[in-house]
Design a protein that fits this description.
The chain is mostly helical. The chain contains 15 helices and no strands. Helix content is 68%, strand content 0%.
């Protein structure tokens, strides 16, 4: 049983990491998106952000070195990533369900990090972990684990209820959306039950990680706990393979669509990419566009569709 658990944990972690990296690479290599160019852009100068301006206001702006305001960008990014600020402002009812779900996942991710640290420290310095430091660390990851699991499951139930009962949201709800939420509930529910129902002599979560690091095949893992770990490992591998990988896409949406204000200068990398795009031969079903797979973007962009319509 312990070997199965180790293999599931290793495979789940590997698939999650590789699939997430592949998804990010795919987005990074995608053609330049149509930019919104809505101001203010948070990485602008703070004085310009106040009135919605940009560096284009400056005289001879193309001759000046730009200053990237990372602090301004972080002031927008952090509340959005951690607290779903935009959702809270524009859809408060959904935020009440979505925020605990996502924030619970963040806490659980942090808990996994703490458990890993405790496991490594226990192997490297067992005497140190047997003292007050080990007690404090155990208390912290126990509390964070309970809080994260509770928030994530409450949020998943809330989101599932909203998708099944809200008339507007039901239009956009697919069987996959329902399955995803049920997957979270089942995986987290079985893992929680496996942890709570362990016998006094059964290994702790830290002991399981230590067993994985040392590949201790003598470790006896209870069946229910093993099932919960395998389900969670499968869930971790499944997430980046679906639209739930929006946690990757969100970065590119903000930086390449909403906030991208890089100018297209003669001889720039942007110009080279756009020149290539003009050679593409799109194939759209919209007849008025004339994208029949034979004409290039350059041909389509320089043709007046109204003239063709009059004929």
């Amino acid at each position: 049983m312990s070997v199965l658990v180790y293999l599931a944990l290793g495979a789940g972690t590997a698939v999650f990491a590789v699939a997430t990296a592949a998804r990010a690479w795919m987005y990074a290599r995608a053609p330049i998106h149509l930019r919104w160019e809505l101001y203010p852009v948070p990485h602008e100068d703070p004085e310009k952000v106040k009135h919605g301006g940009s560096y284009f206001e400056d005289k001879d702006w193309w001759t000046r070195k730009r200053h990237y305001n990372l602090a301004g960008e972080l002031r927008v990014m952090v509340p959005e990533m951690l607290f779903l600020k935009a959702l809270r402002e524009f859809n408060r009812k959904l935020w009440y369900r979505s925020f605990p779900f996502h924030f619970g996942l963040y806490i659980l991710a942090g808990t996994c990090g703490l458990v890993f640290v405790a496991a490594v420290a226990g192997l490297a310095a067992p005497a140190l972990m047997a003292g007050p430091l080990g007690t404090i660390l155990q208390w912290v990851y126990t509390v964070s684990g309970v809080a994260g699991m509770a928030l994530a499951m409450v949020g998943a139930v809330g989101l599932l209820h909203r998708r099944l009962t809200d008339a507007d949201l039901k239009t956009y709800t697919t069987a996959g959306d329902v399955f995803n939420l049920l997957f979270f509930l089942v995986a987290f529910g079985v893992l929680t039950a496996g942890i709570l129902l362990r016998s006094p002599g059964d290994p702790s979560v830290v002991a399981l990680v230590q067993g994985l690091l040392t590949f201790d095949r003598t470790l006896q893992v209870p069946g229910l706990l093993a099932a919960g770990i395998v389900l969670c490992a499968l869930l971790a591998a499944y997430i980046p393979l679906t639209h739930m990988s929006h946690f990757v896409g969100k970065y590119f949406t903000y930086h390449d669509v909403r906030w991208n204000d890089q100018v297209n200068l003669r001889g720039s990398a942007i110009e080279a990419k756009l020149t290539e795009y003009l050679t593409y031969r799109p194939n759209w079903s919209a007849a008025h566009v004339g994208a029949d797979g034979k004409r290039t973007w350059a041909d389509i962009a320089t043709t007046n569709p109204w003239e063709g319509a009059k004929k």
